[in-house]
Design goal:
By secondary structure, the protein is an alpha/beta fold. The protein has seven helices and five strands.
Length: about 170
């Protein structure tokens, strides 16, 4: 997807190409995530993108990663207000919330959403990844959210949270 974005920026591909590729990838990730069996009693994680962050492929990759590590993800979709994410987390008894922020970088409105989310779920771990996530490092630190740069790091974080959940 990064290469598609660069190709679009340099005029080698049109918007239609990026949108078509995104649609195909979204379909594939959705079918992988929905094709896995869900087990009652597995650890629930809410996955979304915060309001103002409309690119959802990273979140869908997070869903697939969560399923593959034994979590039971509830995918809420892109650009959801913090209050709605927090409400879903409380209603589902989520052990964690994972957010993807690939665009926009360093947007004060997205930073505000992250802060509002922490206010709505003060004791729930928040994990944030995506290409633009590092640009929110100060906010992530202030709300005690975990940042991951790769899906491998997300997998390690989910494994650690699951172990903590079962040990204590």
């Amino acid at each position: 997807m990064s290469e598609l974005g660069r190709s679009w920026e340099h005029g080698r591909l049109g918007i239609v190409h990026e949108h078509m590729a995104s649609a195909v990838i979204r379909t594939v990730l959705g079918s992988i995530a929905s094709g896995r069996p869900r087990h009652n009693g597995t650890t629930v994680i809410i996955v979304a993108t915060p309001a103002g962050a409309s690119h959802e492929l990273g979140a869908l990759m997070g869903v697939v990663t969560a399923v593959s590590t034994g979590w039971n993800p509830t995918y809420l979709g892109p650009s959801l207000p913090a209050g709605e994410i927090a409400s879903a987390a409380r209603a589902r008894g989520a052990r964690a919330v994972a957010l993807s922020v690939t665009f926009p970088p360093a947007d004060p409105a997205v930073a505000d959403e992250l802060e509002r989310l922490r206010g709505g779920i003060p004791d729930t771990p928040i994990v944030v990844g995506g290409e633009a996530a590092a640009s929110y490092a100060a906010t992530l630190d202030s709300i005690h959210a975990m940042h991951h740069a790769t899906m491998h790091e997300l997998r390690e974080t989910l494994d650690r949270l699951a172990r903590e959940d079962h040990s204590g």
